[in-house]
Amino acid sequence: MTIPNMNLSEARTETIDADGYVMRVMAAIVDPKYNRLQLQLDITEGDKAGYYKKLYDKAGFWGMTLNLYMDPQSAWKFARCIDAIKASNEGFTWNDDGENDEMTLVGKYLGVVTRKKEYLGNDGIVKRKLVPYSTVSVQDIRDKNYTVPEMLPLQGHAPTAGPSGVVDTTMNFGPISDEDVPF
């Protein structure tokens, strides 16, 4: 018997490392609930170009979102991102002291330095994902003028064994007497 073509090259999951990437704003969404601007980004250069579009097509979610909060404490981060976009897109303008249309950001390029971050999955297992760390100009990415930060560990949570690991279920349990057993 012959095994049929199973398209295994399409079934394998592609991985991505923390690094600096030239990215393009694919969508800009104002989220009034959290008072933030969400920029959905995709890689545009190198062997990982189109990575997040492929992920979206395969898994149904956008995997790289830069959240820019619209409050005075976060204004520096917002300004840094706008400056990176200005430096990376000739002729792009932004009114720093007035209202702007977020849709003018769609299609613009910027440099994004990423890092790995641990998070607690819905299954209770500590996992890692790639998140934006900082925004820089596209030229800084091309010139490798950036530093990739260390992974951000999950705080206040003990490491959890994965699906193939052993979980100690005796932790925090003590001996009981025969009188305490209900059967």
Characteristics:
183 residues; alpha+beta; 26% strand
Structural summary, described in words:
By secondary structure, the protein is α+β, with helices and mostly antiparallel strands. 17% of the residues lie in helices and 26% in strands. The protein has one domain. Strands 3-2-1-4-5 form a five-stranded antiparallel β-sheet. Strand 4 and strand 5 form a beta hairpin. The longest helix is centred in the middle third of the chain and has 14 residues. It starts with 7 loop residues before the first helix and ends in a 41-residue tail after the last helix. About 7% of the residues have low confidence.
Widest beta sheet: strand line-up: 3-2-1-4-5
Low-confidence stretches: 160-172
The portion of residues forming beta strands comes to: 25-35%
Instruction: Find the count of extended strands (DSSP E, 2+ residues).
Output: 5
Rg of Cα set:
22 Å
| Tally of DSSP helical segments | 4
The structure class reads alpha+beta
Helix content: 10-25%
Q: What does the largest sheet look like?
A: 5 strands, antiparallel
Terminal-residue CA separation: 56 Å
Q: What gross morphology would you assign?
A: globular
User: Mean pLDDT, rounded to whole units?
Assistant: 87
Instruction: Kindly give the count of domains.
Output: 1
Order of helices and strands: HEEHEHEEH
